[in-house]
Prior knowledge:
Elements: H1 2-29, E1 35-37, E2 41-42, E3 48-49, E4 55-60, E5 69-74, E6 84-87, E7 101-104, E8 110-113, E9 119-122, E10 133-137, E11 143-147, E12 154-157, E13 165-166, E14 171-175, E15 180-181, E16 184-189, E17 192-203, E18 208-213, E19 217-221, E20 242-248, E21 252-259, E22 266-270, E23 276-282, E24 287-294, E25 309-312, E26 319-321, E27 325-327, H2 330-334, E28 343-345, E29 355-364, E30 370-372, H3 377-385, E31 390-395, E32 399-403, E33 409-411, E34 420-427, H4 428-433, E35 441-442, H5 449-472, E36 478-479, E37 482-484, H6 487-493, E38 500-504, E39 507-513, E40 519-525, H7 532-543, E41 553-559, E42 562-568, H8 575-580, H9 590-610, E43 625-627, E44 633-635, H10 640-644, H11 648-654, H12 664-668, H13 675-690, H14 704-715, H15 732-745, H16 756-764, H17 777-785
Parallel strand pairs: 25-33, 37-41
Antiparallel strand pairs: 1-10, 2-7, 3-4, 4-5, 5-6, 7-8, 8-9, 10-11, 11-12, 13-22, 14-15, 14-21, 16-17, 17-18, 18-19, 20-21, 22-23, 23-24, 25-26, 27-28, 29-33, 29-34, 29-35, 30-32, 31-32, 31-34, 36-37, 38-39, 39-40, 40-42, 41-42, 43-44
Helix pairs in contact: 9-13, 9-16, 13-15, 14-15
Amino acid sequence: MEDRCRTCLFLSAFMFFFFFFFLCTKTFLCFAADTMSSGQSLSLNQTLISKSENFELGYFQPSNSTNYYVGIWFKKVSVQPRTVVWIGNRNIPVIDPSTSELKLLEDGNLVLFNQSKVVIWSTNSASSAMNSSEVVLGDDGNLVLRNRIRPSDVFWQSFDHPTDTWLPGAKLRYDNRTKKSQILASWKSPNDPTEGLFSLDIDPSGDQHFLLWNRTLRYWSSGRWNGQIFSGIPEMRSDHFFNFSYVKNENETYFTYSLYNTSIICREVLELSGQLHLYIWDEDKQKWFLFWSVPRQQCEVYAFCGANGVCNQNGLPFCTCMDGFEPRSQKEWKLSDYSSGGCVRKTSLHCGDRHTFSLMSKVKLPANPQRLTAASADDCKLTCLSNCSCIAYAYTSICSVWDGDLLNLQQLSDDEDAGEDLYLRLATSDIRKSGGKDKETHTGGIMGGVAGIAALLCIALFLWRWRMRLSIGKSNTVEGSLFAFAYKDLQNATKNFSEKLGCGGFGSVFKGTLPDSTAIAVKKLESLGQGEKQFRTEVSTIGTIQHVNLVRLRGFCSEGDSRLLVYDYMPNGSLDYHMFGQHDSAMMNWKTRYQIALGIARGLSYLHEKCRDCIIHCDIKPENILLDANFSPKVADFGLAKLIGRDFSRVLTTMRGTRGYLAPEWISGVAITAKADVYSYGMVLFEIVSGRRNSEHSEDGKFFPTWAAHKIIEDENVLALLDCRLQGDTNAEELTRACRVACWCIQDEESHRPSMGQVVQILEGVVEVNLPPIPRAIQVLVEIEENIHFFSEETANPNSQV
Ligand SMILES: *[C@@H]1O[C@H](CO)[C@@H](O)[C@H](O)[C@H]1NC(C)=O
Ligand SMILES: *[C@@H]1O[C@H](CO)[C@@H](O)[C@H](O)[C@H]1NC(C)=O
């Protein structure tokens, strides 16, 4: 009895101590609060943590760096290195943190002392609250220095002094009184947060924001705010998910954004690459998900490769040095810090020495040329030679020369139409070292006979092509198999564009009839920032592409600013009308659907693999699949991506419904391959099977393709996916093939997706298809997009031939 009691007592005591101990530890570990008062300080390993533990403030070290900085990072984001959103002392690091401290002084300033007790950073805030200020880290990531007694009295806040990150709730701001703006500036390199060359700034007079190189040169602009969106980034708009606003008053002009669902972790950051990225944290995958990126192409970032560097959008890495040059610092170059160091000459040029010119062909010429008049390329070359400081020349119709460093030089690829020849002055010894690529010409040397003949041939060819072009200019001449229409003829054929079939991102489509009673569809292209010459080249390429599953281009019209395309008219309209319309879709039985799926695949396979130049369609969706009188599918609008060029991604993102068909790589901004079409095809195939838009939610509230993937892979119940209007009328084997292949097509990894040729073989039954893995990216997109409705307006006509 006594024994038992003693045990009992002992146990109670143990538990009491255990509990006490637990409390204690908890108290010590949780030293961190969200607030620091006058006189208090923070040293290494101590942090402030915001109330809901979203953000943490303390000392950190960038990876591969021995320096310390005081900054704020996402506490709930587990990636290493930490995702830092703000830094106090970005330009002056702490070398030895053991004796450093971050202190809120009695005078109301938050200051950082370095190892020698010297102030290296301070809020420099003028406060009236002696001994009664406090600094609070908010759940929005804003560090606020304020009056403890009157908290609305804010002396300083980190949101007014951003580093490279723009958090929801923060303002991109211009102070109308001081005429100063708060800029975001990129880091200098992955291990150095010092202000880099790229910055984001706001232009209150232009109602826009833009990206700058070296604080002066604009290389990207958002376009003007029209009350709802910035014209250049229509994808950034208020919806159920984001709220964007632009405010102008006498004190300030600012742009800000927020998320309705504040539990979603999101950040906008000006990257080292000079691109502005919007990221969303994917909790499941433990990864930052890139939501969008501007400018889309790396080489659009001004002087990304630094002085004398060459940017190649299709190269990996993007940057190389020009011939005869090498990176100024191999170390920086290896850390992908191209922009600040750039390249330097291997051998310096001396005025009296022998020099040669090395040819770089198909380049976008460097910035800031001096333009001179010269009668010929030879004149231009001589002009450059006679001036010791001239380091390169190019002769188009005028003579351009450069001295000093070359900036923003880009190498274009062979399949791009633009591009000039640049001649680069090098020491002759450098040419020999680099193996004498046969391209150089000797200074002062006489052009060899061979070159002369070649030049003559070139001129002859040029004259011939020029004459060809002139002759095409006249109406009703035939270019290849294409007819060049006069604008007036098309006006007559369409009864002055009176019968509109639909409209989309590229322009409106009208029905017309030719004098021989052939029905045609005329597409009036809008906002084509392209010259006549390039338009004709593109159109004649499209004209050579003929396949039973591709809509045939009959001709075109190019007069003044008008650009029109003339197609065969398709009496049955577009696929979406028959798939999703409310009317009787008796024609859309399983057999027809399967033939349509196969036909689209054959058309795309022809575009990707069988044409002379591979064409990526870039905009596969039911609206672009037209049906002829026999319900045989014909893919429309191919080749337009190239016609529209640079603006294409913009056009895409503004078009209703398109986004649901876009492959993840469109959003992340990497190079687009034919596999992007495969992805879109997979999305369309799901719709053909189910008879409804993927964007409509399925039974358990999930995005249809995700739900479908689970049904196919886990339940192996493909019948559940079938359009209920078919009442089970299907071919089980074909249905299985179609579902599996659709699921393969929408894999995140491009390399996992089949080619369109393989898709054709699978659908034809020539090749077997295994069970696919569940695609991951769509799930993320879905979780995010469940709330986002980028494209809520009804703009397209269901019967559109767009
Ligand atoms: C602030 O507090 C310090 C120490 O408690 C004291 O020495 C100082 O006089 C105070 N200053 C004011 C203006 O109250
Ligand atoms: C940036 O501009 C400053 C002058 O404003 C100049 O001294 C500096 O060399 C420029 N940087 C580069 C990389 O050109």
